Amino acid sequence: MTAKINNPYPITRYDARHDVLHLFLSEQYDSSAEEEMPGIYVQKKDDTEDIVGFTILDFKENRHKVEKMYPQYLKYLPQQV
After folding, report:
1. 32, 43 contact by CB (below 8 A)
2. What is the dihedral of CA 48, 51, 53, 54, to 10 degrees?
3. Is residue 4 part of a domain?
């Protein structure tokens, strides 16, 4: 019998007070973030450069930039904030 692995990802955390969205696609170990464009930080694995998360400042204003630059991640963005 095999054990079922509980994978909690993706995890979306929105801070309404500061209008910041944190999107965790997988574990953040051995990764670093770079500001790809003003207010949009992309977290990538150090060894593979795979994207493992985003931090989006001023999310309501910057959402369209993320949608344009990273359309493959649209399904993980909250519909309403």
Report:
1. yes
2. 130
3. no
Residue with tokens 């979306």: 12
pTM as predicted? 0.86
Contact status, residue 19 vs residue 57, Cβ threshold 8 Å? yes
Per-residue pLDDT of the chain (81 residues; tens, 9 = 90+): 555 667 789 999 999 999 999 999 998 889 999 999 999 999 999 999 999 999 999 999 999 999 999 999 999 999 888
Tally of structural domains, the chain: 1
Range of the domain at 31: 11-76
The separation between the first and the last C-alpha atoms of the chain, rounded to the nearest angstrom, is 42
Burial 49-68 (b: 16+ CB within 10 A, else e): eebbbbbbeebeebbeebee
* Type of residue numbered 13: R
As a whole number of angstroms, the distance between CA 39 and CA 61 comes to 10
